[in-house]
Recover the amino acids of this structure.
């Protein structure tokens, strides 16, 4: 794997290098600043498979660099792992919003490092499989897809990692809302993987825009399921979101109708809060939001070019 | 390793790793004087002006780096002291002269490595 490590401490860079070498990873490029990292990335003909970024660096910090790397062809799809001491927990939100995939604690623990590399290798295998399948008429409907370019879009894995990283008190300040494309089978039928991904990106952007105060994060969880993570304090007004979705979907559906595309039918679940789930894994919040959208979702109704906005409660199961 | 802080978080598992870490410990030691001078310089400024922003930032940067790297080199005690100072900044409770005692402990531990 081709790996980039960025840290302003040259000794730590060397620690990373020899620990990665001990795990069989010899192709490691190093940078001591964001500027140096950007020069390396822009010069690189081949994409990087993984990036490790120190959070606290002078001038441009690791979180800002993460956002910059997400715009570079050589790193836009690479897992980005933030390397940080525990005291930087306040940067967790910023880093995931900027496109980070996961966190790794300083000082380096070889077991944790091995775990992150296994995750990276598994992601790389999945990406390679998707590339091979891109031209096939029947892509796998159940794969969570990345939401590159979508406002507040993160990968499903990144959202899971984010929730697992939050301390209990911070977790309680979040709520999750599931949004589902109820007719996903019909949308999926006959599409290539890239066309299907295009629909998922369109719908994700519409959902992101429909949450008035802006979602903290949104991810695609596979199939027709999305999860939106919100700040609890901002609250969640489902009727307002359904109405906003009706307006935006009517615009999108007009576009789809012109090209003969099937129009997605959306359902919005109630807000799910961590509440009494204290003893459950934090990322179970995502599963619960998806299930709630299926079982207790409200369907968004609209016609092409004219928003309906009328809602009805309906089971949105597949 | 000499006197201080020997609990390693990353027990070397192969000779190449062990040799690499030994070389890095030597490199860390070689750069210690510079780190000590930076920390002592900042402390001197803060004794004159407890609000000196740049001096406080210099202490945080240096402690942050030491906290991140020292335990990987088998210097867990030093890493722990540096981590506490860094945490005080992160939790916005770092102030002079409250920082003086832990900083003195850190400097003493670093100087011990020079012996």
């Amino acid at each position: 794997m081709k790996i980039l490590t960025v840290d302003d401490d040259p000794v730590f860079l060397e620690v990373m290098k020899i620990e990665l070498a001990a795990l069989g990873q010899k192709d490691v490029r190093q940078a001591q600043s964001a500027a140096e990292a950007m020069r390396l990335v822009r010069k690189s003909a081949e994409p990087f498979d993984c990036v490790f970024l120190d959070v606290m660096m002078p001038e441009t910090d690791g979180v800002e660099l993460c956002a910059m790397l997400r715009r570079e062809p050589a790193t836009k799809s690479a897992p980005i792992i933030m390397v940080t001491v525990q005291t930087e927990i306040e940067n967790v939100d910023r880093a995931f919003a900027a496109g980070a995939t996961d966190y790794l604690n300083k000082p380096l623990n070889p077991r944790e490092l091995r775990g992150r590399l296994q995750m990276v290798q598994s992601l790389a295998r999945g990406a390679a499989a998707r590339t091979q399948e891109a031209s096939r008429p029947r892509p796998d409907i159940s794969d969570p897809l990345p939401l590159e370019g979508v406002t507040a879009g993160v990968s499903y894995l990144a959202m899971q990692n984010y929730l697992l990283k939050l301390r209990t008190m911070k977790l309680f300040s979040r709520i999750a809302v599931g949004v589902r494309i109820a007719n996903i089978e019909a949308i999926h039928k006959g599409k290539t993987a890239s066309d299907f991904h295009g629909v998922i990106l369109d719908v994700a952007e519409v959902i992101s825009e429909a949450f008035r105060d802006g979602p903290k994060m949104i991810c695609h969880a596979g199939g027709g399921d999305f999860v939106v993570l919100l700040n609890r304090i901002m609250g969640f007004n489902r009727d307002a979101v359904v109405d906003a979705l009706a307006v935006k979907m009517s615009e999108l559906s007009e576009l789809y109708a012109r090209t003969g595309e099937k129009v997605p039918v959306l359902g919005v679940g109630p807000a799910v809060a961590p509440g009494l789930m204290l003893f459950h894994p934090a990322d179970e919040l995502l599963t619960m939001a998806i299930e709630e959208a299926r079982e207790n979702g409200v369907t968004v109704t609209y016609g092409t070019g004219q928003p309906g906005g009328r809602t009805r409660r309906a089971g949105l199961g597949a | 390793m000499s006197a201080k802080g020997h609990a390693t978080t990353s027990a070397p598992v192969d000779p190449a790793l062990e040799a690499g870490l030994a070389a890095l410990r030597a490199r860390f030691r070689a750069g210690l004087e510079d780190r000590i001078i930076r920390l002592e310089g900042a402390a001197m400024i803060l004794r004159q002006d407890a609000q000196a922003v740049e001096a406080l930032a210099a202490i945080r940067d240096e402690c942050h780096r030491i906290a991140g790297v020292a335990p990987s080199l088998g210097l867990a005690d030093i890493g722990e002291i540096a981590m506490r100072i860094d945490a005080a900044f992160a939790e916005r409770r770092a102030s002079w002269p409250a920082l003086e005692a832990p900083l003195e402990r850190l400097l003493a531990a670093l100087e011990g490595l020079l012996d």
Chain A has two domains: 3-133, 156-313. The CA atoms of residues 101 and 157 of chain A lie 7 Å apart. Confidence is low (pLDDT under 50) at residues 309-318 of chain A.
